[in-house]
Amino acid sequence: MSQTHLELTGVGIDFPTDKGLFCALQNVNLKIAKGEFVSLIGHSGCGKSTVLNIVAGLYQATNGGVILDGREVDEPGPERAVVFQNHSLLPWLSCYENVELAVRQVFQGQKSRREMREWIEHNLALVHMTHAKHKRPSEISGGMKQRIGIARALAMQPKVLLMDEPFGALDALTRAHLQDSLMEIHAELGNTVIMITHDVDEAVLLSDRIVMMSNGPAATVGDILKVELERPRERMALAHDSRYHEYRAAVLEFLYQRQHRPAA
Amino acid sequence: MSNPNIATPIQETLKAARATALIKRWAPPIILPLLGILLFLLCWQGLANNIQTSLGQFPGPLQVSEQFGGLVSAHLREKEKASAFYERQEKRNAALLAKNPEAEIKTRPYTGKPTFVQQIFTSLYTVMAGFVIASLIAIPLGIVCGLSKTIYTAINPLIQVFKPVSPLAWLPLVTMLVSALYVSDDPLFAKSFLTSAFTVALCCLWPTVINTTVGVAGIDQDLNNVSKVLRLSSLTHVRRIVLPAALPMIFTGLRLSLGTGWMVLIAAEMLAQNPGLGKFIWDEFQNGSSNSLGRIMVAVIVIGLIGFALDRLMLLLQRLFSWDKNAVLR
Q: Where in this chain does the record put each ABC transmembrane type-1 domain (chain B) (predicted)?
């Protein structure tokens, strides 16, 4: 692995509640290399999203901090683009305009109008959504919305792509399609990605490393699993690969035996 | 080659079925309201016939429609008189100029009593002015309150206290303020107009402020996060995210405001003797002729119809500007 690109050191966060401070995260340490695909997995409420929000700059860590390319992260910004769980497209803008809003904001003064238009078109093509660019989010399916959400994030040309359960709300077939698309894009662009997921198969299929989080309160990194399956990965081929099943079993074992499942 | 013995009865049955279907389709939206109105008119006429007031019999629908015709023809007569007046004046001036090209000519406006129709337009103009003033204050104020919890907490008590104040309580204060502050030799607006408009504005601020605040405060946190990740400036954030997201609620507020404003205006005009429909009613009441009650009833119905039309107009605008074409607006 190359040198550290993104580093979380001793990250902890307390939320004020009526009963005093609630310690959601404690001492989260993580080093991520450039181009690495890392998944965060853990039970509901273990603070996965909190970690992502801290990296995004939407939450401020109480202890420790996040360093990206030698600079501390202390506010949200387009170099850490977020793909939200429920797409978060602006419903009054067309798909094209949703991406355009991001592109205009990020590349103001750097790209000409024509370059911007080409860049928007390019990103829409990357997620295979050129055909629906003039539709409003309410007119397209959930999977398509998520594709546009990814296109918007990619169009910011982020150093790190943060994905908060991007495919959680989709049906299994659509999810598989989007996972394939994401692998394609990751292979082509080599972005650094942090993805939150609940889905063990998804984590093993997509990740270079799987960060398994212990249960809260005071959740932290429980274990890290290195997934050494060569890329490009093929869903069908992996189904018969014993290593794939071992990785899968390792994650399941962590989640269900080493971590008590919180009362659902 | 059809056999008429068989074809004709089938065609008859189809025709009958079509007729029934037509009735079923159109009965609820058209016939039922008409029935309701008819029933109301009958009851009204029946009751009116049995009520004697000091100004004669209480007017029923027949007398009211008579008065309506009278008011319209009075308006037409007045208009004729006015144009005749201007014609005479023009002729006189032309004659003066012909005699002496340097003669000073005067153009005087016609000074007849404003007619019912003119009062309607005065009222509409005044309510619109008040409504526009109120909206220009209320929408920005609502956005600020919705965006900042601090400002909202600071301002909310004031909103809650001023909101229930009756227009009639404001009116004397507004009248005095306008007289004191709007001193001009050549006033652009009549003082009475400003008094009415400001009173309307004071009363129709609140629904828009409150609904805008609720709309802005209720914006999906994810959309705000998008804005933060993109580092949108405050102005761009308001323009691209806040305004469109809160637009449905803003329109709800505006509709309520316009309705309130229209009600307030009539009361203000009555009390302050400002021109408009309110003054028309008050004048008729003071006049106390046997036609007065009928004319007041005409005004009541016209006020209702205009209020309804204004609400529909706002609904139309809301549909036009709404991005959510699936929303059911009523």
A: 120-314
Query: Integer distance in angstroms from the first to the last C-alpha of chain A?
Result: 38
- Tell me the β-bridge partners of A80: A160
Domain boundaries, given as residue ranges, for chain A: 1-79+164-264, 86-157
Whether chain A has a CB inside 8 Å of the CB on B226: the answer is yes
Q: Which two tokens stand for residue A160?
A: 């790190």
SS3 (DSSP) at A192: strand
How far apart are the C-alpha atoms of A36 and A39, rounded to whole Å? Answer: 10
DSSP-assigned letters across all residues of A112-172: -HHHHHHHHHHHHHHTT-GGGTTS-GGGS-HHHHHHHHHHHHHHT--SEEEEESTTTTS-H
Find all residues with CB under 8 Å of B101, minimum gap 6, and list them: none
Question: Which residue, chain included where needed, has tokens 């059809």?
Answer: B2
Residues of the domain holding B138: 116-321
In-domain check, residue B168 = yes
What pLDDT is attached to residue A153? Answer: 93
Min distance B330 CA to chain A CA atoms (Å): 21
Partner-chain contact A156 B244, CB within 8 Å = no
- Give the count of domains, chain B: 1
Task: Dump pLDDT digits (tens) for A36-52.
Answer: 999 999 888 788 889 99
Q: How many CB atoms lie within 10 A of CB B317?
A: 13
> How far is it, in rounded angstroms, from Cα A77 to Cα A100?
17
pTM for this prediction: 0.82
> Within an 8 Å CB–CB cutoff, is residue B87 touching chain A?
no
As beta bridge partners, residue A11 has: A28
Phi-psi region of A87 (alpha: psi -120 to 50; beta: other; left: phi over 0): left
The CATH number assigned to the domain with range A1-79+164-264 reads 3.40.50.300
Q: Are B230 and A56 a contacting pair at CB < 8 A?
A: no
- The CATH number of whichever domain residue B241 belongs to comes to 1.10.3720.10
Most distant CA pair in chain A: distance in Å? 56
Q: Is residue B9 part of a domain?
A: no
ipTM value, please give it. Answer: 0.88
Look at residue B60 and tell me if it is in a domain. no
Number of H helices, E strands in chain A: 8, 10
- Is B42 part of a structural domain of the chain? no
Check: CB of residue B204 under 8 Å from CB of residue B134. yes
Residue ranges of chain A with pLDDT lower than 70? Answer: 1-3, 260-264
For residue range B220-261, what is the model confidence (pLDDT) as tens digits? Answer: 999 999 999 999 999 999 999 999 999 999 999 999 999 999
